[in-house]
Design brief:
single chain; about 325 residues; mainly alpha; 17 helices
Length: about 325
């Protein structure tokens, strides 16, 4: 990578969101803090070997099927650590400060990769640079992911890369979008509703790659709020592919509303509803017929098996003939 670009990122003024990160205003998710805080702390270790090992752990593959790319991983991790140390030399005291300052350096590193459009093997650098966003569930960096998605859609790297290389970038972006917490992806959903066709088209690519059920509430919200037919079409396709039954009620309502104003979309929604119903036809066994948690009850109110005496008495009252033999006739 170009050392001048790294130096420029280190010296650049922080954006408002980066300044918020640096102040530790965004706490890490609890599971991320439990799993990663020790590693983040080691980034400020007095041993250079331990600090670089922590940096490489952030950029390590998070999927057994992902290519390792050790040389790129080592280079990106080292540059990330230099960026971090150039701006934050003292170890932060709290987990929120550590998390925020690490995310700020990850952001600058990824931005340096994105803006260095002439790097050989750009696909490897982007694939490695996106890893910490997934590792740390960094929804705060969604705007940078959107910037990469926008550059990909505009064809910034198309003249320099082959189709397999472009597909590697696509896979890395798709995996990252599916790993982000939907509630923290405000920049993505805002760009999806943009009136700028090129930007909206880039986000539509991202919608096509969404395959996680946790995105369903946000896709439904986009379906209801977005006025653009092409966006709604892609959202319905994504909901059909995910096939989550939670989408059925909203889809049925939107189909009724669109029947007179957008007949093609209404027909597409009908098909999606059929597919989702078919995919979930054999899932009824997953629905509980009683609450999974029950309130405690007094022992006296609980059902008990009837005693033999009570059962016999009840049976005697229902017999069609008397229980005692009739008197013998003389």
């Amino acid at each position: 990578m170009d050392p001048l670009e790294i130096a420029a990122q280190a010296a650049s003024e922080p954006t408002e969101q980066e300044a918020s990160l640096e102040r530790g205003e965004s706490a890490p998710p609890p599971d991320v803090a439990a799993r990663w805080d020790a590693t983040l702390t080691s980034l400020w270790d007095t041993s250079l070997t331990a600090a670089l090992a922590a940096a490489e752990a952030l950029y390590a593959p998070d999927d057994a099927h992902e290519e390792d790319l050790p040389l790129v991983q080592e280079e990106v991790a080292a540059n990330f650590w230099r960026l971090l140390m150039s701006r934050y030399k003292a170890r932060p005291e709290t987990a929120s400060l550590r998390y925020g300052q690490v995310l700020s350096a990850v952001w600058r590193m990824l931005r340096a990769i994105r803006t260095s459009s002439t790097i050989p093997f750009m696909e490897d650098y982007l694939a490695v640079g996106l890893r910490p966003i997934r590792q740390l569930q960094a929804g705060l960096l969604t705007s940078e992911v959107c910037a990469i998605l926008y550059a990909y859609h505009r064809g910034v790297w198309t003249p320099h890369l082959t189709k397999p290389q472009l597909f590697q970038i696509q896979e890395a972006l798709a995996k990252t979008l599916n790993a982000l917490p939907p509630d923290a992806m405000g920049a993505f959903w805002a760009n999806l509703l943009s009136d700028e066709p090129l930007r909206r088209g880039a986000m539509l690519l991202g919608v096509e790659w969404l395959r996680n059920a946790h995105a369903v509430p946000h896709l439904l919200r986009g379906l209801e709020q977005c006025p653009h037919h092409d966006t709604r079409t892609v959202i319905v396709n994504a909901l059909e592919q995910i096939a989550d039954p939670r989408a059925l009620q909203t889809l049925m309502r939107v189909r009724r509303e669109m029947a007179s104003t957008d007949w093609p979309l209404s027909r597409q929604i009908s098909r999606a509803i059929r597919v989702i119903e078919q995919q979930n036809r054999n899932q009824h066994h997953r629905t509980l017929l009683r609450p999974s948690l029950t309130t405690s009850e007094e022992p006296a109110s609980l059902l008990r098996p009837a005693s033999d005496a009570a059962r016999l008495h009840a049976e005697e009252e229902k017999l069609l003939r008397p229980t005692e033999p009739p008197d013998e006739q003389p």
